[in-house]
From TrEMBL:
SUPFAM superfamilies: cAMP-binding domain-like. It holds the Pfam family cNMP_binding. It comes from the Bacteria. The keyword Transferase applies. Keywords: Kinase, Transferase. It comes from Thermoflexibacter ruber. This is cAMP-binding domain of CRP or a regulatory subunit of cAMP-dependent protein kinases. Residues 25-117 form the Cyclic nucleotide-binding domain. One of its GO terms (molecular function) is kinase activity.
Amino acid sequence: MKNNHLLIQFIKNTYPISDYAAALIADNFERITYTKHTLMLKEGKINSDYLYLESGYMRSYVLDTEGNEVTTNIFKPNQMVFEVASYFQRKPSKENIETITECTAWGGKYESFQKLFHSLPEFREFGRAVLVKGFISFKERTISMITEKAEQRYEKLLSESPDILQYVPLKYIASYLGITDSSLSRLRKDFLRK
């Protein structure tokens, strides 16, 4: 079996399973490196890769009705990266996923994971835990976009993921927060004054 300590630890932290089962799951992933600005998933293509991001930063985005990029998620180390609807429903993605920095990831193919899903109950539980965590995060973000002011969303991002500000261009962060670049600049200045 391959030995990727970080991936195995992520699996065990996501769902408590034996070392053997975690290593068996991890053995279905291959190490991949990506250069900066690699388009990993293009709108209209089917997402066949289930990635664990070991290092680096990625984002997902869509194009609005005027052709502007809108960042829908920012991925950082120790997270799973995939477009859920396309991956599970085997339909063309409406999102794009690209690397923001150089990245190291561990990727698994849809076909391998289908076999694991049917043969290893621990993998089903791990997968379910990843989906539940992702759904909760999505729900909280959706509600915050409606119920919180930009300042609150920015402050939350600062407290939960201060590293993002070091590695992710401000235009992507502004888009993710649902504000303009100039509004983000103003917010940053206000927070620096405090």
